[in-house]
UniProtKB/TrEMBL annotation:
It is found in: Periplasm. The keyword Signal applies. Residues 1-31 form the signal peptide. This is Sugar ABC transporter substrate-binding protein. Residues 49-302 form the Periplasmic binding protein domain. The keyword Disulfide bond does not apply. Keywords: Signal. Belongs to the bacterial solute-binding protein 2 family.
């Protein structure tokens, strides 16, 4: 075997080190190029917040969307609808006509109203994603994603938790508010009602129009009358954080003391945290609205800039109770939980 001289060995080692250095330099440059600030800065998105400006739930969604816009650099136009399905539909029509790169849409109007506009958006090359309420037909037809709690499963889980936690039994009465005239939006509260009925509880269904989410005080006379007409009621379930945060007002109007009637619902907010503290609220199902703002913009940016698949996220995240509400209290006061 031919021996390698020292000088030749050193020369070969130098070549190897040089090659490794070149590879490292290329790899380092590629890694540096791949990490970008404001990487979605050329993308225009219309984002549907759902409620009116200042709405308790909508504010958290809005803050999540604003954080995503800040982190990605996306150019986002925010749309406020006062939870009106008709207004959302008209605003979606206007959004599609404006031809942004992407639209993050509240699903409240349902498949029948959204589907033809989703078809127009697809034909125009506009990416769509949905939040808060799913629209399964539109999602399946166009491969769109959904960010939010799964309506019926979350509602059913809340009903089961009410039975377990508070010991409601056959013959007890519960009042459940919900959009029962809308099978798409009301699926969550219907899930709660059916879970309670499966446990033998008599359920009084009370239809809650979208206007009550915009101004929960509008519900005072109806809720008061329903509570007084059902003196045996053990619990009342609200369809959103706006009404749950107003539980003290409803109970006082109905002549009830804190804790006399179990008040349950969905979401967190500064008002709900205060109601936990004062004993007016006993349970709420958290659906993490901040993620419902943040994730749709992130997913649209990933699809439009990098060609990645849309991202669906189930934001249903368990329950907030008198035992753990302090864990979210500070974030709630900041409009983040």
């Amino acid at each position: 075997m031919k021996k390698l001289t020292v000088s030749k060995a050193m020369r070969n080692a130098g070549l190897l080190l040089g090659l490794l250095s070149s590879v490292a330099a290329v790899t380092g440059a590629s890694a540096a190029d791949a990490v970008r600030d404001k990487w979605c800065g050329n993308v225009h998105i219309r984002f549907f917040v759902g409620g009116a400006e200042g709405d308790a739930f909508g504010t958290i969604v809005y803050n999540g969307a604003r954080q995503a816009a800040n982190d990605t650099g996306a150019q986002v136009e925010y749309v406020f609808s006062g939870w009106s399905q008709e207004q959302m539909t008209q605003q979606l029509r206007e959004a599609v006509a404006a031809k942004p790169d992407g639209i993050a849409m509240m699903g409240h109007p349902g498949d029948a109203a959204i589907l033809p506009l989703a078809e127009d958006a697809a034909a125009a090359g506009i990416k769509m994603i949905y939040q808060n309420v799913p629209v399964p037909t539109a999602q399946a037809k166009f491969g769109s994603a959904y960010v939010g709690a799964q309506q019926e499963p979350q509602g059913r889980a809340l009903g089961e938790e009410i039975l377990r936690r508070f010991g409601l039994k056959a013959g007890d009465v519960a009042i459940v508010l919900g959009g029962f005239d809308d099978s798409n939006r009301g699926a969550r509260e219907e899930g709660t009602a059916k879970a309670l009925e499966k446990g033998g509880v008599k359920v009084v269904r009370l239809t809650s129009p979208p206007e009550w989410a915009t101004d929960p005080n509008l519900a005072i006379p109806v809720i008061t009358a329903t509570v007084q007409a059902n003196p045996a009621a053990k619990a009342i379930v609200y369809p959103g954080g706006q009404q749950l945060g107003n539980a003290a007002t409803y109970m006082q109007a109905a002549g009830k003391k804190a804790g006399e009637l179990i008040n349950v619902g969905f979401d967190t907010s500064p008002q709900i945290v205060e109601a936990f503290k004062d004993g007016w609220v006993q349970l709420t199902a958290d659906q993490q609205p901040f993620q419902q703002g943040y994730m749709p913009i992130l997913s649209l940016c990933e699809q439009i800039v990098y060609g990645l698949s849309p991202v669906s996220v189930d934001t249903g995240n368990g329950f907030v109770t008198p035992d753990n509400y302090r864990n979210v209290a500070d974030l709630a006061s900041q409009g983040l939980r």
